[in-house]
Give the backbone structure.
Amino acid sequence: MHVPHGARRPGATRVTLLTEGTYPHSHGGVSVWCDQLVQGMPDLDFDVIAVTGTGREPVVWDLPAQVGEVRSVPMWGAPPEGRTPRGRALARLAAAYEEFLTALLDPRAESGFAPALYALARAAADGTLSPFLRGDRAIALLTSVWNRPGLAVREARPTVHDALTATALLEHALRPLAAPPPRTGVAHAVSGGVAVLPGLAALDRHGVPLLLTEHGVYLRERYLGYRTAPYRWPVKAVILGFFRLLAEESYRRAALITPGNRYNRLWEEEGGADPGSIRTVYNGVDPAAFPPAGPEPGTLTLSWAGRVDPIKDLETLIRAFARVREQLPDSRLRLFGGTPRGGEAYRERCEALAAELGHADAVTFEGRVDDIKDAYAAGNVVMLSSISEGFPFTLIEAMSCGRATVSTDVGGVREAVGDTGLVVPPRDPEAMAAAALELLGDPARRRAMGEAARLRVIEQFTLRQTIDTFRSIYLELPTLQRPSEPVAAPAAPLPTPAPAPAPAGTVAG
């Protein structure tokens, strides 16, 4: 879906934001960050290529005039229009796809990934890739490749059902290649993974410089998500192989990589990124927009803000609260934030857990709040329980509001908090409960931590610093651009998950 918006201005620097599941169709930390950049640079022009679910998602942000157009690329809606190739075109595409699959499954052939990916991108541009991947030839090629002697995945005895599932997942994952890539300016991918695909195509076809910002480590989150996904190992080997090699290619080809924290930088260097092409840029908030929250609630309360999603690990937070309530029976846990479409089952699971532990009366899911500051003010202590984060907005916003925090040790959390809050291991309800009890029992310490947290934000994590840094990057990036020819040499590989026993699985709906 293509949505025209503001008029193009001659001579203005143009930035195309490449997003997935975020701005401008969804709320959340990354969407807030995108909106900050766009609103903060009225002198630059922006377009958006947004990878979405069905393509029917509404635009939920007020777009300023400098946003020229928004193009939605649906992953799970109707497939891209096109036709099945024939003759020599079919033979070329089949050969490229076979090379692509071989790279995903055979460590000795990984250097073929990049050339094959760009060949698939050209097929997507002329409308033949998706029809090809929905045909029998693609299924047969995968069945042939992963049954070759010597490949580890062969030991799991892949089935035709596995081939159908893996091919369907690849067809959906590669759909962003069909989006018309930007021809000028800068392509700025605000996450890794499939959002980068139009940027890689723009670089290969038009020499448009690619800027990559990772708030969380996309590949790590795919590993976490697919660990419990309902697919057999052969399917996971194909899909995780794709995400791993795509991450390496993205790191290798980006003119500049701007992780939101030093933790992400380590993954990017392991993935083959040139350390000289990495520049850490922290998220920022406007301290005036997040002033001190004022008096604490009279009832001892833990508050949390974010989207209701498994990666936020609310189950650990609820289990920790149950331990808190054993010592403070009148305490409360208030959870603020929306539930994304498709996440209803997870919220229901969390509500059921609170009821099972006997605390349904004290755990409240309060949905989206009109003013997020109210969520931070609602707690004596603000909690963050995620198993993966970049440099979380909710944390630095709560710090700016002068609240003490308890957070899990993931991503850039320690870099954000310093010594102004308590940091505990992820997935550890006992440690989280102990930290929460420590702060709930010491009002003076909470107050001192909150004051120090706000000062830390003012000194290090302001929105003005973030916007000024990215404006400079947008203006200088063309001078940093690398050659547009694909690089075939393999980079140092990112971690590959060890083969697991092949569980029974079904095609996801």
Remarks:
- The chain is about 45% helix and 10% strand.
- The two ends are 23 Å apart (CA to CA).
- The chain has three domains: 2-80+178-282, 87-172, 301-460.
